Structure formats: C-alpha cells, structure tokens
Amino acid sequence: MIQHVNGIDLWYEKTGNGPPVLLLHGNGESHKIFRVLTEQLINRYTVYALDSRGHGQSGKTKELHYDLMAEDTAQFILSLKLEKPLLYGFSDGGIIGLLLASKYPGLLAKMAISGANTKPDATGRGWDLLFKIMYCFSGSRKIKMMLTEPHISAEQLSSIRIPVLVLAGEKDIIREEDTRFIAENIPDARLKILKGESHMSYVINSPKLYPELAEFFSVDKEAGEL
Fold first, then answer.
1. What is the distance between the alpha carbons of residues 161 and 92, in angstroms, rounded to a whole number?
2. Strand 8-16 to strand 2-5: parallel, antiparallel, or no bridges (unpaired)?
C-alpha cells in the first residue's frame, strides 16, 4: 500500500487484526527485515511495517534527515487516523521514534527502540572510520546522514511522556553509555541490554525480539490499555 504524506509516497504493508503497531527499520533496509516479527505480532495486533523515504518501495528523495523522517511518520499516523499506536524502531527507526515521541508527546501509546543513538559519534571504535570510508567510495546520502546526525539532547528525551523500552545488544555497535543516556533521560523508560547479542542479531528476521516486545506491549486488563 502507498500513503502520500509530507511530500513523499510511503510504502507500507498492513497485516493482522487488533491495536495498531508501527515497525520502523534501520538505515539501508526495508520492512522486509520484520517478516518473522510481523508473523508473530499479527494474531494480536494490526501491523503497519513502513519503508522510510528513500528506502525499499517508498519514494525517492533529495532530502534525507532523521527529523524529516520523524515528520513523515507523524503524518502517516495522522493521515490514517491511527489511535495511539504502539511503535517499535530499530537503529535509525529508533532514532526516528525518539524524535517523533519528543515532538508529538500524545501521538503514541508506548514505544520500544533498539540500537538507537543520540549523536553521530556514538558508535564503537572503528565503526565511524568504516562508515567514513564507505561514504568516500559510495557518496551515499544514507551513510552521510549517519555520519552527521542525529543530535538528540537530554531535554528532548526528557520531554517524552510515554513508556519506552530501550534495548541494545551486549555487543552492539552503539556505545552502551549512549544507550544508557537515552534510558536515563526518558522519565518512564526501561533499559535492557541483551546478553550475547549484537546490533542486529536479535532483530533481522529473528524470533528473539518478539518476547521482549510482547511483554512490554502487553494488555493491562485493569486499565484497559496497551
């Protein structure tokens, strides 16, 4: 399916039945990394798996910035009239989620992120150099964005007023200090470092992610909320 928002055609796959869940992929990827997770979610949720602008089957773009993609996602939610959706964002998708939740505090019900970062130099030793070399050879705007963005402050994080699950692998490319910075500055955040996992080992078409999300997104029967 295609939804035109914020000057771009966003491609998305809609499956399942129940409360809405948005899935946001990482840099250079598409919704296809969530095939396994989607199959696990659709018995309880309506899953909206998006391709970000300039990725997958979504429209090409001259501008590629995290703030712009966060606005794309906000307009997508509003245009489809999704009521308090849940959101999971991986890597760049997690960055988009943080920006979205800070700018639109009442838009989401809950959010889970994994492998997200708040600044360009939050990657571990050697990764920044590798990305610079890759950019020199490719000139990719996607890689350039990783090298120059994001710049998310403690003040922005503290403005997020929904429950947030912050995940990262024990062997993640994102420095643990930055992951902890995110969790420590969001008022209602839970942090979990997954033992033995890398940046993407438990995410890319893996069954390991679902138990973490299922527990966090679970229904509160007394409150009648997700």
1. 21
2. antiparallel
DSSP letter, residue 225: B
Would you say 116 and 182 are in contact if contact means Cβ atoms under 8 Å apart? yes
Looking at residue 90, which CATH number applies to its domain? 3.40.50.1820
Between CA 176 and CA 101 the distance in angstroms is: 22
- Per-residue pLDDT of 155-211, as tens digits, reads 999 999 999 999 999 999 999 999 999 999 999 999 999 999 999 999 999 999 999
Counted domains in the chain: 1
Q: Residues 6 or more apart from 47 whose CB is under 8 A from it?
A: 13, 14, 15, 16, 21, 23, 34, 38, 41
Residue in the block written with tokens 């491609």: 11
Strand pairing category for 20-24 and 46-50: parallel
On whether residue 8 sits in a domain, the answer given is yes
The token pair at 217 is 């997104």
- Three-state DSSP at 12 gives strand
CB 117 within 8 A of CB 130: no
**Is residue 223 domain-resident?**
no
pLDDT tens per residue across span 66-122: 999 999 999 999 999 999 999 999 999 999 999 999 999 999 999 999 999 999 999
Local structure of residue 122 (DSSP, 8 states) = G
